[in-house]
Amino acid sequence: MSETPASRKAAIWVVVLFLLGAIAGGMFGYGYAHRSVAAASAPMPEPERRAKRVEQLTKDLGLTPDQAKQLDAILIEWHGRLKAIHEQAEVQIAELRQKGRDEIRATLTPEQKPKFEEFLRKLDEARKRNNVK
Question: In angstroms, rounded to a whole number, what is the distance separating the alpha carbons of residues 67 and 64?
Fold first, then answer.
């Protein structure tokens, strides 16, 4: 089964075109995915989020301007209350995290402690990067 030069050339072109298509598809897919993730991960500021919610409810429920104003005031009040609860919870979580770490440190040998501190440093960096409290 001897291949002719023309069929060999055609096969090479098919392979080259397939690879170029795969590369282009990968590049476009990567670009699209990262653009979508960046847009989705950018948090909307609270006043803007609240205004959208008031606008949506005004439209869906047919609120009067006075009702929309009252709704906005209610949302501001409740957001403040919820924020205070979240802040208290974050303080309690941080305290518990520290107590747990201290208990673990108490069980470690002097040789293990630096490795654990390095582990915690990396964990805290990852938590900060991911905006996890």
Answer: 5
- Residues 50, 87 within the same domain: yes
| pTM greater than 0.85 | no
Is the four-CA dihedral 72, 74, 79, 84 of positive or negative sign? positive
Same domain, 29 and 57: no
Residues 38 and 59 grouped into a single domain: no
C-beta neighbour count of 54 within 10 angstroms: 19
**Each residue of 37-53: b (16+ CB within 10 Å) or e?**
eeeeeeeeeeeeebeee
What is the distance between the alpha carbons of residues 133 and 78, in angstroms, rounded to a whole number? 22
Number of domains in the chain: 2
pLDDT reading at 5 higher than 90:
no
3-class DSSP assignment, residue 44: coil
Domain extent for 38: 1-42
d(CA 101, CA 98): 5
